Amino acid sequence: MQRLLAHVADVGFSGAPKPYGLSVDGAEELVEFLPGEVGHDFGAPEVRSDASLIAAGRLLRGLHDATTDFVREPGDVWQLPPREPAEVICHGDAATYNTVFRDQLPVAFIDFDTAHPGPRLWDVAYTAYRFVPLYAPDEEEHTLPVPEARRRLGLFADAYGLSEAGRAALPAVAAERLRALVAWMREHAAAGHPAFSRHVEEGHDRRYLTDARWIESTFG
Predict the structure, then answer these.
(1) How far apart are CA 179 and CA 159, in angstroms?
(2) Distance of CA 125 to the CA centre of its chain
(3) CATH code at 103?
(4) Contact by Cβ (8 Å): 48, 101
(5) Which residue in 1, 13, 46, 169 could disulfide with 66, CB within 3.0 to 4.6 Å?
């Protein structure tokens, strides 16, 4: 992660923390503290606004563009498996809860632990899922009427600069991305990872599968 954050800073991308090396015992990676508010509350007006959605799309495009010439090394270790075609380095979890807001707009992504090489659309689809959001109607608190979800999805695609082919493929990729997340979560839960075990117990995996089916049937 340190090399990746150093690279994007060197090429002029300011929407990520700068790396400060490792802790004295080498157990932790140290990064810059970015002032602002993290978007944990998706119901907050500034998180749900069209302006925030557009800014998030542009921020993700800026991150991806900054990684196109990142030089991978044989010893690189990624928490999530690399995925072909490896067009960029995906953030892997560029959601509202990993976004720093200032003046009610997204200005940076944080928590790059899940970064990995992959296609642009793999990351775009997940960020759209979280920012639009693309939640099935049974998720009553934050789901949107379908016409509104379509409108906001279009805003996000425009802000990122997604091609027509990318727009057409996005629903299927979003569903595939959620199913891959479920498989990864269940694998780690089965191995005894406490956080993932708790997520499965709480039904996060079932939530993602419900949303994947709804995205395919509604937008596919």
Answers:
(1) 26
(2) 8
(3) 1.10.510.10
(4) no
(5) 13
